[in-house]
User: What shape does this take?
Amino acid sequence: PYSFSCFIVVIFLLLFSLILKIVPTSTSYRAVVEIVSGDSRIFSGERLSLRCIIPDPYQASWGYLWFRGSVQLPQTGEIFQLWNANVKESGKYSCQGKKETDVGSIKTLRSLPYEIHVDGGFAILQLAKRSVLVGDALDLKCRLRGNAPVHQTILYRDGIQVMVQSGSSLNFHLPHVTLEDEGRYSCRVSWDLSRRTHSVMSVPTLVNILEVLAKPVLEIDKDNAQLGRNKMNLICHVQYNAPAPAPPVNYYFYKNNNLLGPATSLNHMHVNKASGWYSCRAKVPKLDIVRWS
Assistant: This one.
């Protein structure tokens, strides 16, 4: 009886270790960080809140891990808060979902980083949107610590003056931007006090201008064992930045400027291996946008 009990225990331990090896320790979906209150650029002494979103279709109960860079932070709630923020708390924040199961911990993929700047100076340039599409308007706000009687605000791009405003307004509006408007923006605020003119300048802020549909890049996969020796895969990679709901993209593939088939919603095509000049074209009919590789 004793040896049989030992045998049962050994079998149980082997089965349990096998289950641990089979059960995944991570999910296929990635956590997302969003800002709840405040701004990605704040003055020291101010506060902001971030939320960790777990895109779990089963709506399970999750715990939360927070990171600044590679360092795990002590906060474990869905909402992360910076109170009375310090300049040293600037950094790239990310989160990860974690839950305990009968066979161990399961974690989501860590979120993409959300960069926070805590500024100890007297002026900050804030963006309405982190990235702006070609043709859209760029809205910026020059914030001043305190309530000085502002009489002039100047906007710069890469150190070159872009716009001058007289009066107390701290907002800038640039309509219909192009790729040439991308750069590092800063602002200078001036005011008069006690018969003296005072002036402060913000730290430069990078503004990204994105095309709705960027130039495609054609990849030719010639060594794919699943296709066989006589086939290769043409892959048309594009960066498509249209806001949701985005109209569909049509793809066209060419050899020596000759169309290889009808338009397709797939960005790849299997063709016979043959030498020649290959290219692809991406088109969004509803937006009347066409890009060639």
Confidence is low (pLDDT under 50) at residues 18-23. The chain is about 5% helix and 50% strand.
